[in-house]
Design goal:
This protein is an all-alpha fold. The chain folds into two domains: 77 residues, no CATH class; 139 residues, no CATH class. It is built from ten helices and no strands. It is globular and about 60 Å long. About 9% of the residues have low confidence.
């Protein structure tokens, strides 16, 4: 019960905080649901009231009805264990190592947004996360983006905790395999990451589960390397 309360508190805080960060969008009218009809209806009412009182506004091009459905999707994500925890961990790593900034300090939300979408998709493909019933990959990507947006304003804390260290380790292999002309030797990167994963597992730093195999971890690591390189190209950064 306490965990469920903390998860819902996180959702509420995220909605309120992102209302401050997101650009206001005028919500379209939608017939109010019977708030006591179901848990989903209760969430739709909560979101609708939050919009009508100015606590938040629909984002990512959503209508009010779509935003209410997204609120229902969030509650379903929060009721998972592995998916919810993995997305929170990825969000902190992204906010720390892949901030929405170019090498010259100018703002680049598109680069971070693309990285978020690609990382969540790669995590789903590799079996680290999966959309719970009634949700889809887009919901997971929006949820992660909301978390990252909230964490983007807490960089000083993240710089102390350095949750993006794993992404920086992967980047070090990309840098090592990058030639003077900027071309990355991807077979070398994948081979190095494969050895890294084997060493982590052998040393006990990574524990396998019945639902998580060595090949899945290696596949995800290789995908992360590609995504990191794309992000660096988009932001003109030589390293994370």
């Amino acid at each position: 019960m306490r965990n469920r309360f903390l998860r819902f508190a996180l959702f509420t805080a995220g909605v309120v905080l992102n209302a401050v960060l997101a650009s206001p969008v005028r919500a379209q009218s939608s017939p109010p649901p019977d708030c006591a009809a179901s848990q989903a209806a209760a969430v739709q009412c909560f979101v609708g009231n939050a919009v009508s009182t100015g606590l938040t506004q629909p984002r990512y091009g959503m209508t009010l009805a779509q935003f209410q459905d997204y609120g229902v999707a969030i509650t379903k994500i929060l009721q998972t264990d592995q998916t919810y925890l993995v997305l929170v961990g990825l969000s902190s790593a992204i906010a720390d190592a892949l901030p929405p900034r170019n090498a010259d300090g100018t703002y680049n939300d598109a680069a971070q947004g693309a990285a978020i979408a690609q990382i969540v998709a790669a995590a789903a493909t590799s079996g680290f996360v999966w959309p719970p019933s009634g949700t889809d990959l887009q919901d997971l990507q929006w949820f992660t983006r909301d978390l990252v947006n909230a964490m983007n304003v807490n960089q000083q804390v993240l710089q102390i905790l350095t949750p993006g260290v794993t992404l920086r380790i992967i980047d070090s292999y990309v840098i090592t395999a990058t030639g003077s002309d900027g071309t990355v030797n991807w077979p070398q990167v994948n081979s190095s990451l494969s050895t890294l994963v084997d060493n982590f597992i052998a040393s006990g730093l990574v524990h396998l589960t019945p639902a998580l195999t060595t090949s899945q971890i290696k596949s995800f690591a290789s995908s992360l390397a590609q995504i990191i390189n794309n992000y660096k190209l988009a932001t003109n950064k030589p390293s994370l």
